[in-house]
Write the structure tokens for this entry.
Amino acid sequence: MTTKPIALPVTAVTCLEDRAHVERVVVLDLAAGVQRLRLGPVSALAVDRTLHAELSAGHPATVLDVRLTRNWTPRGPVPHADDDSALALRAHALVREQLDLEQGRERLRTRRQLLDGIATDLLREIGEGAGAGESDVARWARELDRADEERASCGERLRVLEARLAAVGDELGGIERALRLVGEEPAELVGHVELTVESAAAGPVELRLSHLTPCALWRPAYRAVLDGDSLTLETDAMVWQRTGEDWSDVRLTLSTARSALATEPPFLGEDRLTLTDRSAAERRTVGVEWREEETSTLGAASVLGLPGVDDGGETRVLRPPVRVSVPDDGRAHRVPLSGFTTTARSEYACAPELSPLVTQVVRFDNRAGHALLAGPVDLVRDSGFIGRGTLDFSAPGASSELAFGSRDDHRVVRRAEETRETTGLTQRTVITRTVELRLSRFSSPGERGDRVVTVRERLPVSEVSAVEIRLRKESCAPEPDGVDAEGIARWDVALPPDGHRTVTLVYELSASAKVTGL
């Protein structure tokens, strides 16, 4: 067995959603026969059951056994002058001094409390003696002066000690920050790979070793620059890793595969359905209720904290164009992936029921050559960085959109009224709702040209035939430019500089007499 371990550097990494697949390549100079080699060091977090070793084809050698061993070497409680730097030795000395100063401070505080008690007892004795007719003024003055001198001396020593303690704390904090910048302490737990091979002939052979390791992840991030009708979108990857070793000049692959998901189908439980006869009252009435529904496309559900990678249900693989280096510091490192410039179509949109603001929405086609995963976007416009938005999943070549913030020079005021009446003969209930939207544009002097604002207002959608909803087009001013299947009415309103426009929407909701719940 080799006494000195053979270096086993990281050459390629496939970073997954919550772990990494690490690959190492090294050329071994084998002798004929069976031999046992020690390689490393490697990360002690490597998963043993995923360790796989493979020799290059064309060489008469076979891997008999490969395993991961770990050695624990704890650091001593007292730094050694030969092994530690001057900063580490100074930090240890300051820690000892800080401990001594804290103990001295506690002793002085206890002594001051005792002196305060003695002064209180002396004053009480003087008061009792004066009440009993005693008049030993000289002794009383001498004892009071002595108590005051002891209290003053104790207070001064405590002040000096606390000042020194504060100075030691500041110096120790600066040294600890410097030590963190200089480098990390050596790991207490170090792993090595023990490899047993059998070779029929001596000669060099390439070894490829791979394994999984936790404490590594990545997430997509973007930077969008809007310049008139042109949009430049840069795709980056934020990579974190705390695996115990640096990734220096490696081939990085970013994958959305979820190796932690179970491969077995879920257990199917029994679900029984029963039929019951409706009562006479239930047959005479139809119960309805208002329900708010959010329409969205397939994708990852929003969660608190760091979200997962939304890949549209299909594993995606991204590769940076160059080799990268990611240090083992647990911090986020930005890795450029791709970028493209395309024509952008801007729209000023507003949904007054949700917000009185007018937002600039930019639509563009995905020309990156790969899918755009859901992630945060740094938004840059003519004035520079304006904020951060969110990009949804977009397939290659598909249309996508980004919101570039609200416009301060636009305002929308919404007012809604409702009337309810019942017809006498059929006892049919009719609810009439009127929504009035007032749009305003405030322009700077010299500004010219109309600006089209797309206004969207929601109409209820009925799922039962007993409830009907009708848009009163003759009462709307102006009539909506369109109403989609989800009940969203749309107007394209042209606003001149310092202009005002009013949009009115009127619709009726009618229900038969047997409908309850409205």
Summary: The longest helix spans residues 86-131. Residues 10-75+186-213 form one domain. Residues 349 and 516 are 37 Å apart (CA to CA).
